Structure formats: C-alpha cells, structure tokens
Amino acid sequence: MFARTALQTQKYSFSQPLKTSVRYIRTFKQEDQPRLRINSVVPNFEADTTLGKINFHDYLGDSWGVFFSHPADFTPVCTTELGAFSKLKPEFDKRNVKLVGLSVEGVESHKKWIKDIEEVSKLKNFSFPVIADESKEVAFLYDMVDEEGFKNLGKGPVATIRSVFVIDPSKKLRISFTYPPSVGRNTSEVLRVIDALQKTDSKGVVTPIDWQEGQDVIIPPSLSDAEAKKKFGKFKTVKPYLRYTKA
C-alpha cells in the first residue's frame, strides 16, 4: 500500500515515493524518523484513500496543501472537524489549496464514517481524500503521535494526534500545528495563515499579530526607507524597525 520507507533503509530521498511491503516487519526507530522543519521538503508516499490510491506529491501538484490527521474514525471531535473543513473547501479552492485527511483506520471504515460526517454537518458531498494509515507508516513519517503513542508504534493500537501541515507548491513545509487528541482545531486560523503566507510570498512583506486579509502589513527591516518607498510608496513609521504599509 505504501512506498518504501526509512524503516527499511537509511539511504532514501523524500522527493521519491516511499513504499513498504506488508510482509516487512516494521520497526519504528526514532533515528530513522525524518525531521520536519520549516522549509524542508515533506516526505512523499503512496497510500490508499477514500478517493483511490494517491502519490502524495503528485496529488498536490502545483497546489498548496493542508494535510491533517485524526486519532481514529467515528470519534466526536474529528467528525466535527472533517465536516467543518469540507464545508470550507470552496475557500481553500479559492486559495489553490488541496485538503488531505488521515486516520489510522481502513478505507471502508473511512467511507462509512464519511456518511456520518455528511449527516452531522449537513453536507451533500464530502469531496477530499482521507488516507487509510492502518500500518502507521505515514503517522511515523510525519510524527503524528504523542510520546506514548510513539512507544507503542508497531506493538498495538495507536491514536494519531491532531497534526496540521501547510505545504507550499514546492512541497516545502511552511507551517505546522500540533494539538492533543482532546482539543479541536480552528479552521479560521488555518485559512488565516495561508492568506498570510501567500501574501508575504507575493509582496515581500511580513504580517503582524492577528493579521487578517485587507489589513496593513509590515515592511521587513532588511529594506532601507529609500528601498521601502520605491517598492511600496507610502508607509507609516512607528519605530525605525517597525513600518506599516498597505499590501
């Protein structure tokens, strides 16, 4: 179901799909786990999903991605989360963002759960893939477990934590959130940070606390006043290192 992983060899590249054989006896070693840092290329993999088999990097293509995990199927908080993300899919589409979920149950279980999600959230059509990660391979690659869960990988049932990864079109990790299983996510914050990332990428600015689309942005201190005036026109100086301008 998956591509070869670091569990089988330490000579690997995350730009290539990582496959594993179900016949392989998996050992989840911390030294083999990739380090996910801001601006690192995220691991690629192949997996079965509710919309068929995907190659993760190929599926994202030239789009941004939001990849998020859930502790298990038929859990209350996850049901509300997946429903909320699905309702907001048109907003993610506007931003050229693809949504991809993950849970540690199988595809058939996911499909039955989606019927509940559609009923609870009053959705006509749940339309993004949910990965089946029964082997916990992807959970390992993306460190989607807590301390106790990591110790139990390969030994028994493990619930993934609520991880969120925002990935840009170059497949680099730009922002990640990590929540315990007991705390639901904030979809508005996910959209907000995507707006901020896309704004700062396109305009060469940075965003202040609680920034929302349409509000003033900050000119990076690396630009002189002369350079800032040439690039942005008018700006407001609060401190020599804190200058606001229109985006």
UniProtKB/TrEMBL annotation:
Q: Which GO BP annotation is one of this protein's? A: hydrogen peroxide catabolic process
Where is the catalytic site?
C78
Q: Does the record's keyword annotation contain DNA-binding?
A: no
User: Where in the numbering of this chain does the Thioredoxin domain appear?
Assistant: 36-199
Which GO cellular component term is one of those annotated? cytosol
Gene Ontology molecular function terms on file: thioredoxin peroxidase activity
The domain of life is Eukaryota
Keyword Oxidoreductase present in the record's keywords: the answer is: yes
Keywords from UniProt, A to Z, are:
Antioxidant, Oxidoreductase, Peroxidase, Redox-active center
Q: Which PANTHER family match?
A: THIOREDOXIN PEROXIDASE, THIOREDOXIN-DEPENDENT PEROXIDE REDUCTASE, MITOCHONDRIAL
Tell me the function of this protein: Thiol-specific peroxidase that catalyzes the reduction of hydrogen peroxide and organic hydroperoxides to water and alcohols, respectively.
Its family? Belongs to the peroxiredoxin family. Prx6 subfamily. Belongs to the peroxiredoxin family. AhpC/Prx1 subfamily.
What protein does this entry describe? Answer: ZYBA0S08-02388g1_1
List the source organism.
Zygosaccharomyces bailii (strain CLIB 213 / ATCC 58445 / CBS 680 / BCRC 21525 / NBRC 1098 / NCYC 1416 / NRRL Y-2227)
